[in-house]
Amino acid sequence: MPFIWDDIVWKLIDEEDSYDKSRFVVVRKLHIKLNTGPFQVVPHTEFTADKIRRYLRKYGGIESIELLPNKEFEAHVTFHSDQSAYLVQLQHEFDREARKQQPFYIQPADTWEQPTENTNQTANSNDIKQTSDIFNLNEDCLLHLFKFLDVDSMVNLSEVCKLFQKLLNQHSFPRIREFKVYNFNDTFSMPLAKMRRTLRCIGPYITDLKYTCNIYNDLNRTSRFLETLAQYIGRNIRRAQFLSSLICEDNQILTIAPILRHLESLEIHDVNYDLGNDVDFEVLCPNLIELKLKVNMRLIKCCKPWARLQHLSVLNNEYLNTMTFLSFIEQNPRLTSLEFDVFDADIRLRTVADRLTMLQKLTMDSVDSSLGGWNFVHVNRLQHLSEINLLTLDYQHLRGITDCLATFGGLRKISLHAYRPEDEVEDGEMDYERSLIDLAKRLPHLEEFALRSVAIVENTLVDFIRFASRLQVLHIHWCHVEVSDAIILKVVNILKCNRPEQNHPLSMFLNPADLLDLHVTRSEDVRKYILLSAKCQHFGF
After folding, report:
1. CA-CA distances (angstroms) from residue 131 to 134, 140, 432?
2. FRET label pair with 481: which of 158, 215, 273, 502, CA 20 to 30 Å apart?
């Protein structure tokens, strides 16, 4: 019997209207039955509404799926459009005639089970003409198009219609895990109304927050921004950065307490002019693993045992005295990473070496103090250190420091930063260069090395790379050496000899001005062994 379109698209209402097709009931509901024959395609356990929707949604929007309670493995599927139902039936008939295995038996549901609303051909035609072509696409096509949109566009699109809102809420918004706000002075990239609209959509799914909102002249307005964050950001938040956000002023930090309790990492760069303003971060953030505070604060309330804290940074804190620092270290011996200012160097380093037996990463800033090789007598006991970063060093102490660093056989990362300008370096003050080369010889596991404002010559740079056999990352910034094409070619020749079978090229970070004068970077042979870049994520860049 030939396939008849009239039998699929409509059922006549009664006999007397059989010759009047201006009034008909649209067939949008199909009867689905699982194929349980010998060549069954879909297992019985997968006959669920979700599986049926995934199989049929490519034909068009599905209004509802009803599993029939009194019949086993049968269901009714209602589409938004009769055209979608027709395409399903048409494909089913085509596969049946081609003797192709089918997961379901499909046919139109009985007339009395169709949606009750009547329609007419004229009205249906007008509706189609007035509807945008994008609504003719199935859900998979729409979701593919949504992948090319930024967050702002998706938020705007979610307000177009319920279909877009449903698809975005189910598939697109849950994939957005980062949220950044940069409102500095009069430059507002994220006004309050826009932030509310955005967070209503993505707030429950955010895991990483980077928030900068510097409004010094209006703390009440600052509070409204923080209240919006606390209202819409959900329980999935794990990491947060607050930069110049004034959250330490007038107890503004209490406003975002619902966010803080879920954090594992918290970083604050802010100002605090009130010596009496002290925050108990352990109470506000009981799940913290990493705490980075670049803010003046006494931190007496934080001086207690922490349950999970492993990484602590208290750089550039003029209010933190030595007694509070030592008390905190003694009560938290499980720290594995520590960053601090070297005031009272001998006392602080002795306590760090005695108490923090699990320490792996150590960062020290010697600003306003004198850090030298003699201070490392205490640190030498921490032979399991894998990373050391030393900031604002004095040139006259560089040799003694590099000699001491060479005794840490397990070091993988080293960063040295001197604070004296290059043009003030006098003759005879660069005797540390031989110590740098010796450092490369004696540290077999060194993978990353960084120099900033440490003057070196061309031969020192080349020899350091020659002897650092496992070096993967090298930072050279403001080091008084002109990195030329000739130097790069020397380095490539060294790498060819020392690492003929290396899979990863050496990553070398330079000043942007130095990179502009290089031309050998266009050579494939050079890029195979060395990658040059000016995009450095180093501290201070």
Report:
1. 8, 19, 75
2. 502
Q: What is the pLDDT of residues 216-243, one digit of tens each?
A: 767 778 888 899 999 999 999 999 999 8
pLDDT per residue as tens digits for the range 81-105: 888 888 888 888 888 887 788 888 8
CB atoms within 10 A of CB 186: 6
Non-local (6+) Cβ contacts of 17 within 8 A are 23
- Output the pTM of the full model: 0.71
DSSP strands (E only) in 371-503:
387-393, 413-418, 448-452, 473-477
Six-digit token string for 138: 């199935």
Q: Which two tokens stand for residue 239?
A: 């990491």
b/e per residue, 354-376, with b = 16+ CB within 10 A?
A: ebbeebbbbbbbbeeeebbbebb
Domains of the chain with CATH codes: 5-131 (3.30.70.330), 386-541 (3.80.10)
- CA dihedral (221, 222, 225, 227) positive or negative: negative
| CA distance linking residue 377 with residue 345, whole number of Å | 11
Question: 449 by DSSP, 3-state: which?
Answer: strand
